[in-house]
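Bug #77: duplicate submission created two jobs. Keeping one. Sequence:
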Amino acid sequence: MDIVAAAADEIIETSHNQLNGDHGSYSPTFEKKLIEENRYDGYWVEAFQFDNQSVIGLIAFGLNSEEINFYQNPSITTQSGNRTLIQKFNGPVAMDQADITGDGLNDILICFQYGNTMLDSDPEGGKIVWLENPGRNVDKDLWKMHYVGRSTAMHRFKVGHFTQTKRWEILGLPIASKPYDLVSAVPILLFRQPDDLLNATEWPFEIIDQDFFHLIHDATRFNNDQLDSLLVASREGINWFYFNQNLNKWMIENIGHGEQEQKQQTTYYGSGGIDFGRVGNDSFAYLAAIEPFHGNVIAVYIKSMDNSLKNIYWNRYILDIYGYPNEYGEGSAHHLVCADFDKDGDYEFLVALRGPSPNQGVFLYKAIDLSRGLFAKWKVSEDSAARIAVADFDYDGLLDFATISYSVPGYYIAKNPSINIFYNRFAQKKLQAINEIQVVKQNNDLLFKVPRSNKASQYQTLPFITIDGITLSLEILPPYSSRHVDNTTYIKVLSGRIIWTDSSKKSYQPVNHSRTFLFKPRTAASLEIHSDNDRIATGSEGALLIVFETRDKSNNIHRIEDIQKILIENSLPEYSPQDARKLTFQFIRYDQYDSAQQFKGLEFYNMKGFRIKFADNDEQLCYMQMWAAGQGVNAGVHNHAKDFFCETHVCLINGSGQGGIHYLNDSKEDYDPLTTPDSVFEKLIVPSFYEQGPLWEIDAQNKPVLRNDSTVVYPWHKWQAGIDRSFNQSYDVWIVFEFNSQLSTLPS
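Kept job's structure:
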């Protein structure tokens, strides 16, 4: 860690103390994930969702390869080669995104036909188009192009609502006005959405300024008083550019003049990159800037008043100077972005350095004392970076970032241009103190309060019981995230959905699998997972799971010959409430609960119990209890005539290999214990770590059939333990999941 900007020794000491707390030293850590290497070029990367419900991925391109590609999120995909061609352009430079059509799908805007360099620009280029999102056919055809307009050397543009809020507008920001002219002012164009959006040959436009700005390299959009505004980084420094509705006039307010010391040496001066940082309740506590054009200076502007850009004075502090300008007068810094990476409510900022080393990679800066312009910094990537895209790519509640290497002929070409995602890991310790799964002791049960799986913000696992070496954990897997699995892992879904790909079958072709909380009715299915990448993933629903972990993988039948000697442990972690951790579990012979003659002296046992409710409204999801039965035991024929739940069975240990559910085919069939023979029952063996699908009656809407009193309609059924005569005794052990019938619609 470095402390940057001038400050007294005592302030630096205080800053170190501020960065050390109950969770240890403040140490930004990001885990690198390679997305693509050995690219032909590299310039732009941006986070993108096809719609608000889809997975966050990346749009990336360079200036020379022509291809605009979408890259799937590696946190949820199980396949390689995960890029989709969106469209092809000659010399694409910048992009933006918006739902142009208003259909709920995000469209893409691109400017292209730039030319060789900003000096040798294409006089007929600088074109802007918007690409219509095709919806479900995103991977079938190239996206349809709609022409907007052009201006030579169009380098940046922003879509928004700059003068009104009813229709889209685009502000075009060329870097030069014509080829071989970096001296003249550049025109600023305002394009307005046409009446016939889909059939218009171009958008109407006007030039709203052509006298003030020169060499615009970047701009940041923000919303102010319902309308969008821009902070523009150009030769003039940092300027706030906005439309004043009262005056019906475009306004330019200077914030700072940028870097002026290099004017004689490089001919470049002013600013080249800009973003704003929130601290506390102040959305504009500081502005972070790269200066000048393609500069080597990192500066911050700090104002004297809160939460406004008007009538204030900005103090400029130089934080870093990365090397010296090259023979073209350019430095290594190219892009920066502000965001809250450590979830403390204050924004840090990242700076992208294109290279060469040592001025290459990404640095993170954190404000320590704004009144003195004091920041701390850490290097969080060594890779060449042209731009930075910020999003929570692994859906763990922490912002991550992605980079693309800078590789542009005529400027700088990085070695092995690549795209990488850097997953945020340094704030996890702090976040883990907030557990989304809560457990308390309720009578002699454990009560779990859980989030809805589609609302979970981070992964959490809570082991709670171990039975003869099999550990059961309640887990929450947030939307678009993943977890490791191996051959000792078995998974029962309680809500949501998990997905994986398996090519282990004879054809060796990858097959996509998914699992929800119910299997096919009246079948038995394995809880084992065979995944090509040893991971399961979630989509938009997330998933709530019961995970069974065994000590090792064994093909031998797990046998319990004496139920009194079975080892049962409370596995709750130390942070759980003490009374919950002290709760003991044991199998109680069932004749202590039910005095019926059929159960007297029977090797049939019950263990209660585990209740799961949703934390948002206390709605019960399910109740779990465990059962054990010796060889040949009939666990009692019943049809839940007085029960309101939908039950499924998961077998942990099938002592004989023959135990399972026996049931009558039709709920209308009567059962008489004296006259109904066992031969009329259908027999469904449920092996170890298999689950039985629904037995209850299901209507045309895939919902449980209910009686008038809301009890659930079942056929008569029982658990029937098998017999293996090579053993004197060998118990079946299974779990019954009693689901809320209102939440038990069979997934389609």
